[in-house]
Amino acid sequence: MDSRTFRDAMGRFATGVTVVTTQVDDETHGMTANAFMSVSLDPKLVTISIDHNAKMYSRIKQSQQFAVSILSDEQMDVSMHFAGQKDNPAAVQFDFVSGIPVIRDALTAVVCNVIESYEVGDHTLFIGEVLEIKLTDGNPLAFFGGKYGSYQPV
Ligand code: FAD
Ligand code: NAD
C-alpha cells in the first residue's frame, strides 16, 4: 500500500489541532500536532506521537516535559506557522504555565512531565503525566482530509 492511501485513510478521522511546546536551555520550541490522545484518568495521562525527523523529538527527549495547546478556530495561522506551512511570527505568543510555554488564547493547555516513551516505527509516543491544565472558552480548529475547518454540532 502506498503512503498516500494510508494518509488519505487517516485523514478521514477528523481531529482537533494542537501545538506541542517544550523548552530546552530557556529556548522554546513549538510544533503543530494532531496525534494527541487522552490515555488515563487515574493517573491523568495523555500521549503525543512525534516523528523522529522532527526537531521536537530530540527537544522533548532532552527536556522530559511538554505542553499541548488545543487551538481555537481563530488560530489557523498559529497551526500553519508551527507546521512550517506559512511563516507568521506575529501569530506566535506564549504564556507560561508551571514554567512551560503554552500558546496564548488556546482552548486548553495541558502541561506534562514525560513518564514513559515508546519508539514505534518512525515515531515515538511520549506519555505525559498531567501537571496542570488551563481552560479558555471558544470553538475548536478542526483538521479533516488534509484541510482546516471548524466544528458544527449536528
Ligand atoms: P520546525 O519545522 O523547525 O518548526 C516548525 C515551525 O515552528 C517553524 O516554522 C519554526 O520557525 C516555528 N517555531 C518553532 N519554535 C518557535 C518559536 N519558539 N518561536 C517562533 N516560531 C517557532 N508531526 C508529528 O510528528 N506528529 C503529529 O502529530 C503531527 N501532526 C500534524 C498535524 C497537522 C494538522 C499538521 C499540518 C502537521 C502535523 N505534523 C505532525 C507535522 C509537523 O507539524 C511538521 O513536520 C513540523 O514542521 C515539525 O516541526 P519541527 O519540530 O521539525 O520544527
Ligand atoms: P495528510 O493528508 O498528510 O494527513 C492526513 C493524516 O495522515 C494525518 O492527520 C495523519 O493522521 C496521517 N499522517 C500524515 N503524515 C503522517 C506521518 N508522517 N506519520 C503518521 N501519520 C501521518 O495532510 P497534509 O495536509 O498533507 O499534512 C501536512 C503535513 O503534516 C504533511 O507533511 C504530513 O506528513 C504532516 N503530518 C504529520 C503527522 C504525523 O507525523 N503524525 C500528522 C499529520 C500531518
CATH homologous superfamily (4th level) name:
Electron Transport, Fmn-binding Protein, Chain A
Estimate the strand proportion.
Answer: over 45%
**CATH architectural group:** Roll
Q: Summarize the main sheet.
A: 7 strands, antiparallel
Number of domains: 1
User: What's the CATH class, please?
Assistant: Mainly Beta
Mean pLDDT across residues: 97
CATH third-tier fold name: Pnp Oxidase, Chain A
Question: What form results from the Cα inertia axes?
Answer: globular
Number of helices: 3
CA-to-CA gap between the ends?
Answer: 34 Å
Portion of residues within helices: 10-25%
Pfam family, one: Flavin_Reduct
Domain Flavin reductase like: 10-150
Protein name: Flavin reductase (DIM6/NTAB) family NADH-FMN oxidoreductase RutF
Keywords: Oxidoreductase
